[in-house]
Design a protein that fits this description.
Radius of gyration: 40 Å
Strand content: 15-25%
CATH topology of the largest domain: Beta-lactamase
CATH class of the largest domain: Alpha Beta
Helix content: 25-40%
CATH superfamily of the largest domain: DD-peptidase/beta-lactamase superfamily
Shape: elongated
Number of domains: 3
Distance between the termini: 155 Å
Structural class: alpha+beta
Length: 674
């Protein structure tokens, strides 16, 4: 059968349906594409806004925000009377947003002039400004004048943030004790380092935000928490006296270095630690790092004859010697294990009192031999040698005291007079304080208390007795021996008008480059306490390698001790000894008759002054006379004499020519000759 031919109507209807199918197909494809596109957008939005939201927020923050940790205000460091030694002051820091600079080169040039940078500094600054970063420091903690100079430039992209910096108002005073603070406000030495966790406080956070063009639009500051206040045992006035006198002594003797330590023997509190050379912690980077070191704590040295104090203490305590026992000093030498040890002077038979007064090496060797190694070593350990004192200062040295199994045949003899042992100045002062306070070794204290920002005490230090090392009877006898060192022995220049002084000189040879004891270089020292009967202070004075013809401990360190001790006693208002004792203990001065040998009948100078004084009912003119001469003249008028200062009489009360009566007080003010 033949197929039925399509009519035009049928053809048109089929074409129409075909087109509709094509349209629907296209619409479905478009709809599907739109749906897939919408689904993709939704998935992407879900990924961006939900799944990876935290990651993109962090990325955005890195691009538009910068968090700066700003140093908190460090707690102050005060002396024992509340006087500031280290404080924090406001300072401005300069920063830049490199992307907002019109010209990094011109900006660097302008900033360099305002900041006083050299060529190298300008080059480094330009490198920083050319970095593709949202924030760079230009210079931190600038002084007010510099901040004004930079602000007056009105440079685009340059901003300021308020910070604080450490400031030491007394500059070099107690610098090695205080330490210093680095640019990041972290303590680097001294108390600043040892008490960093207490002083530093909690840092502030500053959020700097920028817009899409990297321009700073706002910043939010989270406040910091101030650090706590540290109150030291140091007394600013005594510290100043110690440093001033040490500076003079070092300059006069051309010493390499020097140390002075002042301690209250009853509590162990350190009232002063002075070192020379020194540095200014406000500009610590301008000084050699060797000046930052607190030598009195970190450096061990051979003490020399000062150490005879402890040989004598052990001998008296063990009753192997008595003060008036005669010791054979061998004509100035002794042979031990085939080695001859020579004394500094030719001595034959001396009482033990004179052995200490005149510092005979052979005499103390005899006593050490009676003690024996183990006894001697035990006492030295009990006095704190060879171990740290546990003072709250960084870098403390243990010193050097070897155990007896490492001793040679010469160790005991040489140790007895201060060789073959290393001590720190603080160890020596602490050990002598045990003699001064009645026999107790005290832990040295440098911090009295810690306070919060309101002044409330958070922590308070209390005196700590480590152990008893001497009995009271031994202390009394030893003190009497040490007084003889000052009245008639090697330490006569340590005498102080009005006060009985007990102490010991030391002249320790230094070891040269060949490992032998030098015949030229030495450390000259004096350590002692006053008033001897009721000690208020222990002072150690030491000079490293003093120059000159007379440069031993009694020549240079003893006068330094006397000046520091005298000023400190007067400042603390420690009353002098009674009038009779003042007259008996008139201090030795070069060219004067010593008190022990004084007899009015043969003192021509005093007798002549008496004859010239005129009417005994009137106050004589004592100005220009020595302390001893003036005191004797006034005492013979029946006056109670009070001496202030040292040297010759520069002022007096009552005034010359005033009518006087027996029993009134005569105040004589002393001063140095011009």
């Amino acid at each position: 059968m033949e197929p039925t031919p399509l009519t035009p109507a049928t053809t048109a209807d089929g074409t129409h349906r075909s087109r509709e199918r094509d349209v629907r197909l296209r619409l479905m494809i478009v709809g599907l594409a739109i749906s897939l596109w919408a689904l993709g957008i939704g998935v992407r939005l879900l990924q961006l806004q939900v799944l990876n939201r935290a990651s993109f927020e962090r990325m955005a923050a890195r691009q538009s925000e910068r968090t700066i940790n700003l140093d908190p205000r460090r707690g102050a460091i005060l002396d024992r009377n509340g006087r500031p030694l280290a404080v924090s002051v406001d300072a401005e820091s300069v920063y830049a947003v490199p992307q907002d600079l019109e010209s990094p080169a011109r900006t660097a040039a302008a900033l360099s002039r305002a900041l006083g940078l050299d060529t190298a500094g300008r080059k480094d600054l330009l490198t920083q400004l050319q970095k593709n970063r949202a924030f760079v420091w230009v210079k931190r903690k600038v002084d007010p004048a510099t901040a004004r100079a930079v602000r007056d430039l009105s440079l685009p992209g340059i901003g300021f943030v308020s910070e604080n910096r450490r400031y030491y108002p007394k500059r070099e005073l107690a610098s090695q004790v205080l330490g210093y603070v680095g640019m990041d406000n972290t303590g680097m030495s001294g108390i600043e380092y040892a008490f960093e966790d207490v002083i530093k406080g909690r840092p502030a956070k500053v959020l700097v935000e920028t817009d899409a063009r990297r321009r700073p639009v706002s910043h939010t500051e989270r406040p910091s928490t101030d650090g706590q206040t540290v109150v030291l045992s140091i007394d600013e006035a005594i510290q100043h006296a110690a440093e001033t006198e040490l500076e003079k002594a070092v300059n006069e003797t051309q010493s390499i270095s020097g140390m002075v330590v002042v301690m209250d023997p009853r509590t162990g509190e350190i009232l002063a630690i002075a070192n020379r050379p020194t540095f200014n912690p406000n500009r610590f980077a301008s000084f050699s790092s060797s000046r930052w070191r607190n030598r009195a704590v970190t450096d061990a040295y051979e003490p020399g004859s000062m150490f005879k104090i402890f040989t004598a203490a052990a001998g008296l305590q063990e009753k192997v010697v008595s003060p008036d026992e005669v010791i054979d000093c061998g004509g100035g030498s002794i042979e031990i294990a085939g080695t001859r040890i020579n004394d500094h002077h030719v001595f034959f038979n001396l009482s033990f009192r004179d052995v200490i007064a005149h510092s005979s090496d052979v005499g103390v060797i005899r006593v050490a031999q009676r003690l024996g190694r183990e006894n001697f070593y035990r006492y030295m350990r009990d006095f704190g040698f060879g171990v740290p004192t546990r003072v709250e200062l960084p870098g403390e040295s243990n010193g050097l005291l070897r155990p007896t199994n490492k001793w040679s045949a010469l160790s005991l003899p040489t140790l007895s007079f201060g060789q073959e042992i290393g001590v720190t100045a603080l160890q020596m002062t602490t050990a002598v304080a045990a003699v001064a306070n009645g026999g107790y070794l005290m832990r040295p204290l440098i911090v009295r208390q810690v306070e919060d920002s309101e002044g409330s005490v958070l922590k308070s230090a209390k005196p700590e007795a480590v152990r008893r090392v001497l009995e009271p009877e031994t202390v009394d006898t030893l003190t009497d021996l040490l007084r003889s060192v000052v009245t008639s022995g090697t330490g006569r220049r340590a005498a102080i008008p009005g006060y009985a002084v007990a102490g010991k000189t030391g002249t320790a040879q230094k070891v040269d480059a060949q490992g032998r004891y030098s015949m030229i270089d030495h450390v000259a020292s004096f350590v002692g306490f006053a008033p001897a009967a009721r000690p208020a202070l222990v002072v150690l004075a030491s000079l490293d390698t003093p120059k000159g013809d007379r440069n031993e401990g009694g020549d240079v360190a003893a006068p330094l001790f006397a000046r520091v001790m005298e000023q400190s006693l007067q400042y603390l208002a420690v009353p002098p000894d009674d009038t009779e004792r003042v007259l008996r203990m008139v201090p030795y001065r070069p060219g004067h008759v010593t008190p022990a040998s004084y007899r009015p009948d043969d003192d021509f100078a005093v007798q002549k002054a008496e004859d010239a004084s005129g009417d005994p009912r009137l106050m004589p003119d004592l100005r220009g006379r020595s302390a001893r001469e003036a005191a004797i003249t006034a005492a013979r008028r029946g006056l109670i004499v009070e001496l202030k200062g040292s040297g010759q009489v520069v002022a007096q009360t009552p005034e010359p020519g005033t009518e006087i009566e027996t029993g009134i007080t005569c105040v004589l003010t002393l001063g140095r000759e011009p």
